[in-house]
Automatic annotation (TrEMBL):
The gene is ftsH. It is found in: Cell membrane; Membrane. It is a multi-pass membrane protein. PANTHER family: AFG3 LIKE MATRIX AAA PEPTIDASE SUBUNIT 2, ISOFORM A, ATP-DEPENDENT PROTEASE. Residues 1-21 are annotated as: Disordered. It comes from Christiangramia crocea. This is ATP-dependent zinc metalloprotease FtsH. SUPFAM superfamilies: FtsH protease domain-like, P-loop containing nucleoside triphosphate hydrolases. Keywords: ATP-binding, Cell membrane, Hydrolase, Membrane, Metal-binding, Metalloprotease, Nucleotide-binding, Protease, Transmembrane, Transmembrane helix, Zinc.
Length: 661
């Protein structure tokens, strides 16, 4: 009885040796190899098989022809003259070495010479032999031969090209889908399935409560579709995540991949478009084909504005046919699969205003989820998430951190936490303390301190009075945020800074705008009051003030002369157009009102600083002495602010006292 053994997945030695089991096409490979070797052999023997030396006409005439050393001349292809030396002359010293080479021949030819044209060669040869007798005249014959060197110079490169191209074609046929050369039309989406799980979940997404509710509904549909379909509900085909940079759009998509436990295809919008025409549309078709085969599944397209830009007339001069064909294919695919097929498209962008309307309509992207910058409570939650891996000290106060980071996105908060850990490690600490977080915040906002930057005493005095002007003006203006500290230490590109604690406003009134403009002009006004001249240090302030004034007048309709008119365009089309949305006369009126608004604010600021000039000088002198003036020093010089101070300022002062102790 034969013993049966299982060799599943293995090949025996006999299987490899069986005749007829030869790998397909291996014989052709040997054929190509032999052809190339044959060509190289012919080339070598043709090129080096004749060690004939070239010679000029002058040497030929003086050293050979006049000495009667030439036996005959053969003109080949009317281009080259082959010179044969008489056998008895080869033993002379001047011809020594002609017969010593490996491929050398005693019969010749021994020299070759370029003749130009046959007529000129015969004419020069006839003149050179005028004094020769009939027996001394040299025999000249003509022959035509095939030039192997010139031919092989063309044949060998073409043969090598064909050889390698055949190898590539064969590897493409055998490699199938895995061959990258023939996959430029395939989708480049990264697939996350049940075996490759995303480790991000909704617990890692802090804040964004409303957005998570809508996203969780989609995940729940993929897990339990019958709950919705039995009531006749249709899950949205597409979900568009819209929000400023760093608000967590891509993080939300990764959380969906981690929670849904279904195949998740992710790629960037720019990966659709390549240099080859039609590749983008082909990749879109392949992507949706794979998603349908893996249904239920999710497709995530990050930065969809790279391919979904609007096709209006304003962009006609900057159109891209390849991008538009890709967009058309994407629109077709979004409409192409039926309802409740289990394929959902997620897309993210921070430029929703430039997306094509056909892409945004219901039936394609049915649901738009807006991710805003987090408020104070949401920032506390985000800090908690990013503080998990950090070994923090007991004095870390989330209330202070959240309050001192208004307008920060989730990415900014993550950066602050990481910078604080780096600063603590740089100081060889065992824990990350509150002061490290405060220093990290200043580092992220203003840049790295440059204490080594050399500043002359005169410039330092101007900077001190400039920053003191900002501080005094903002202190006595009602609608300006609370001042935290003033510094004249260079940081980043700035030579000094006044740090404020911004309040979170949903709307801004006209008086608030004007007070902010006045506070921004405090530095330049202080320079004019103290030094009777101004410097270039107010460039950033003037840029910010001018933009704010134009926004007030042209966008928010807060100017009395212009009236309640707004030229703001939420679609973003005016930005790409070559004309303004108003007449030249209106442009002149806007410019005039902006100028009047800024000049009036500047005079108001000068009046405040002139009224409190002693405090201005005293604060500037303190800045020159200490370089950084904190909240307590500001109150000692300027007194309590007219409006009620916030609780957070007291917490900051209490913390500073504990740190000093």
């Amino acid at each position: 009885m034969k013993k049966l053994t299982s060799n599943k997945g293995k090949k025996s030695f006999q299987e490899f040796e069986k005749p007829g089991k030869q790998k397909p096409g291996s014989g052709f490979g040997w054929f190509y190899f032999l052809v190339i070797i044959f060509m190289l052999i012919i080339f070598v023997f043709t090129r080096f098989g004749n060690e004939t030396k070239p010679i000029s006409w002058l040497d030929f005439e003086q050293k050979m022809l006049s000495q009667h050393d030439v036996a005959k001349i053969v003109v080949v292809n009317n281009e080259i003259a082959e010179i044969y030396i008489k056998p008895e002359k080869l033993s002379e010293d001047k011809y020594k070495g002609l017969t010593d080479g490996v491929f050398a021949s005693s019969t010749g030819p021994h020299y070759i010479m370029q003749i130009g044209t046959v007529e000129s060669f015969e004419s020069k040869l006839g003149k050179a032999q005028q004094d020769f007798t009939s027996d001394e005249l040299i025999e000249v014959t003509y022959s035509t031969t095939f030039d192997w060197i010139s031919a092989l110079a063309w044949i060998i490169p073409i043969g090598l090209l064909i050889f390698f191209w055949m190898i590539i074609l064969r590897s493409g046929r055998s490699g199938g889908v895995g061959n990258p050369l023939f996959n430029f039309g395939k989708s480049t989406a990264k697939l996350m399935d049940r075996t490759i799980k995303s480790t991000t979940t909704f617990k890692d997404v802090a804040g964004l409560k409303e957005a998570k509710v809508e996203i969780k509904e989609i995940v729940d549909f993929l897990k339990n579709p019958e709950t919705y379909t039995k009531l006749g509900a249709k899950i949205p085909k597409g979900v568009l995540l819209v929000g400023p940079p760093g608000t967590g759009k891509t993080l939300m998509a990764r959380a969906v991949a981690g929670e849904a436990q279904v195949p998740f295809f992710s790629l960037s919008g720019s990966e659709f478009v390549e240099m080859f025409v039609g590749v983008g549309a082909s990749r879109v078709r392949d992507l949706f084909k794979k998603a349908k085969e893996s249904a239920p599944s999710i497709i995530f397209i990050d930065e969809i504005d790279a391919v979904g830009r609007t096709r209006d007339k304003a962009n006609a001069l900057r159109t891209n046919d390849e991008r538009e064909s890709t967009l058309n294919q994407l629109l077709t695919e979004l409409d192409g699969f039926g309802v409740n097929t289990g394929v959902i498209v997620l897309a993210a962008t921070n430029r929703a205003d430039i997306l094509d309307k056909a892409l945004l309509r219901p039936g394609r992207f049915d649901r738009h989820i807006f991710l805003e910058l987090p408020n104070k409570d949401e920032r506390k939650e985000i800090f908690l998430v990013h503080l998990r891996p950090i070994k923090k000290a007991a004095d870390v106060d989330l209330e202070i951190l959240a309050s001192l980071s208004p307008g920060f996105s989730g990415a900014d908060i993550a950066n602050i936490c990481n910078e604080a850990a780096l600063i603590a490690a740089r100081k060889k600490k065992n824990e990350v303390a509150q002061e490290d977080f405060m220093e990290a915040r200043d580092r992220v906002i203003g840049g790295l301190e440059r204490k080594s930057k050399i500043i002359s005493p005169k410039e330092k005095e101007i900077i001190a009075h400039h920053e003191a002007g900002h501080a005094v003006a903002s202190w006595y203006l009602k609608n300006v945020d609370a001042l935290v500290k003033v510094s004249i230490i260079p940081r980043g590109k700035s030579l000094g800074a006044a740090w404020y604690l911004p309040e979170e406003h949903q709307i801004i009134t006209r008086s608030q705008f004007i007070d902010q403009i006045c506070a921004s002009l405090g530095g330049r006004a202080a320079e004019e009051i103290i030094f009777n001249e101004v410097s270039s240090g107010a460039l950033d302030d003037l840029e910010k003030v001018t933009k704010q004034a134009y926004i007030m007048v042209a966008y928010y309709g807060l100017d009395k002369e212009i009236g309640p008119i707004s030229f703001y365009d939420s679609t973003g089309r005016y930005e790409s157009s070559l004309v303004k949305p108003y007449s030249e006369k209106m442009a002149e009126s806007i410019d005039r009102e902006v100028q009047n608004l800024i000049n009036t604010a500047y005079e108001t600021t000068k009046g405040i600083l002139l009224e409190h000039q002693p405090e201005l000088i005293k604060l500037a002198q303190l800045l020159l002495k200490k370089e950084v003036v904190e909240q307590e020093d500001l109150e000692n010089i300027l007194g309590k602010r007219n409006r009620e101070t916030e609780t957070i300022n007291k917490k900051i002062k209490n913390h500073e006292k504990r740190s000093n102790l």
